[in-house]
User: Fold these one by one.
Assistant:
Number 1:
Amino acid sequence: MSSLPLLDVTAKCLEELIAWHQAHHPQLSAQWQSLYELRDRLQQRAWHIVVLGQVSRGKSALLNALYGEAIFPVGAIPGTTQWPRTVRWHCPDQIVDLTDTPGLDEVAGSQREDMAWRVVETADLVLFVTQENLTPVECQARDRLNTLGIPYKLIFTKTDLYPPRAEGIAVSSTTGQGIPELRQLLQQWLQQEAPRARAQRILHQASQVEQSLGAALGTQDTSAWSWLAVQVAGSLLLPGGFFDVGLAMISTLAYIRKACQVYALPFPLPAFASLSQFVLLWYAAIYLSSWQGLTFGSELWGVNTTVFLQGGVIFWGYQQIRRRLHPYLQQGYQWGYCGPQRLLQQLTQTRANVTASG
Ligand SMILES: Nc1nc2c(ncn2[C@@H]2O[C@H](COP(=O)(O)OP(=O)(O)O)[C@@H](O)[C@H]2O)c(=O)[nH]1
Ligand SMILES: [Mg+2]
């Protein structure tokens, strides 16, 4: 997958999801409306770079140094930056929005920090600014970035004051040390990595939207009991291996179809191939369990053990199908050819192949 088709494929994925939910889940629009926002972000021409860090680390000064002009207010007093603010930066061949944010540990309370995180959620790349060893607050923030899957670069500022470090990128906004190198590194990242990073992040978020939608749909009834009852009653009334297997085929397919309808998912499911392996083995077990010679005499203390054995096999099979089907359905509509999970898997696969070969 090369970069630009990757963004096209992601756009197609979002279009497909939106069209599907418009048609099938208009009543749950609150659950999937954020897909529109994701689609808009995907189509934005400008790449979005956001600074993040504790107060007075030199975030605003760093952006000014990168931009080449004193655009953002810089001050020794903590809290100089009160709101996120964005400027457009025309660097060679790329359009970039640079966003400054308030600090992570603002004295004014957590509101400003929340503002910073809301902007970070929409970033293509975060410049994570620090000056010496990472503080506990910074470690937490870094873990959160990792959990959210947001790409970031660790920048050590004020290198004119603090000793240089082995990790991260060292710069000084005051002396300009390391700034041209950082600019070059960012341009390289934008050219080579940004499309993939954006696609991956948006697919990840779309996948989460699908999961919450699937969970909301899952509250509706998809009970297997009625199908199970039909099958057990049919097997008892008309015993015979082939008949039992035929009945199992009809009732399990009807059950899976009903579950798909409840979740408004296409039938047959893309997962059908792996599910059908289990189902075929289960049919074989139903057939074998109807075979009298399998039990130690068909009558034991006056009880027909064949009937009990077969009933048990049928019941167990339904439990297994339910156990495999439901977590799958609750992922929402994301397993189709263009589904976010599938595309994410492909992306991880190509990345692994590239790493292995290079
Ligand atoms: N010596 C030195 N001071 C810096 C550097 N970058 C920022 N500062 C100073 O650190 C203070 C906080 O800077 P600011 O950019 O407002 O921090 P922010 O709160 O993280 O945005 C200001 O007094 C800046 O002059 C640097 O690279 N070297
Ligand atoms: Mg600032």
Number 2:
Amino acid sequence: MKYDFDEIINRRGTSSYKWDKLKELFGRDELLPMWVADMDFKSPPAVIEALTERAKHGVFGYTARSDEFYQSFMDWVMEKHGWRIKKRWVVDSPGVVPAIAIAIQAFTNPGDKILVQTPVYYPFFDVIKNNNRKLVTNELLYVNGHYEMDFNALESEIDGKTKMLILCNPHNPVGRVWSKTELKKLGEICLRKGIIVVSDEIHSDIVYSESKHTPFASISNDLAEISITCMAPSKTFNIAGLETSLTIIPNNELRKSFEGRLYDQLSLKLGNIFGIYATEAAYRHGKEWLDELLDYLEDNRNFAIEYINDNIPGVKPVRPEGTYLMWLDFRELGLSDKELQRLMIHKAGIALTHGPVFGKGGEGFQRLNFACPRTLLKRGLKMIERAVKELKDD
Ligand SMILES: Cc1ncc(COP(=O)(O)O)c(C=O)c1O
């Protein structure tokens, strides 16, 4: 391996949400954080070099994105996902969640209903509710340790007030990389019912060897016309702190409304200079690093599944096809959610993301982020193992 993903990097005291907010969010500072979705690895050397060189320039005035910036993204989407996008479809955005919020404001009205498939990334709930839209949840089906979409229930949830679906693909937290067949079926319902689809594809580059990501909008022109696709280099190259994402909107009318909200009403025209440089460097030169990262993460995933199955009875891991997040089923332990959270924080000493925050279907689950050096992953799993064992011995 050319890149060292085993290196343990001290992130405490670096303004890290994951490591420096533990006391405030979990009540204790000395926890092992395996919660929020960023990685404990350095970004690709090409990104660090591009940022260092730009920092040395020393002038950080207002920014302009070059043609090469957009081309690097368009080439990446073509090479990685086989989707040829046009430059005019791409709109800049400061982050995926802000882009989703803007889409909600641009394409729906207060009181309109917006669908999500739970358990799901919980900021979706906040942006819907905080914009005075009505949250409608459609629970995924959990069948034999595997998640599927519940198309019948989803369709029956839709009425004249339902205007939008926020799709999570790959899905956080259950790790599904939705197949083309599943997406087509979902798309047919949305086309038939006149629903706009915001497809959050932030995890699309983190997909394991047996799966393939399909951009929802790439399936057909009809689906492209009703979709807003959110992509970003932030998860892929561990640059979430640079707050740069890209939104793809092929439909001219939808794009104009989105741009009107983003550029004219919110005046979010110019990006962060470091985000721009890091993004272009990552998309141009980060492929080899990403390939090695994916091998490392896949080994971490397989290691964690085997370790839990062999050593932690009562806990069932859901095998993620994509994302570096593992959804753990603790329901066999028979604990309430409060008891389970207390067990993880006060007995195990680990900060995981609490299942119920992901909405219906999250009860009895916790989400583990395995994007860390293997020694840390082993330590975290051992901590869970010990706490569960003590519980059984009590
Ligand atoms: C599905 C999903 N969407 C969006 C985000 C955050 O995106 P951003 O930081 O660009 O707002 C995350 C981060 O964990 C995520 O998992």
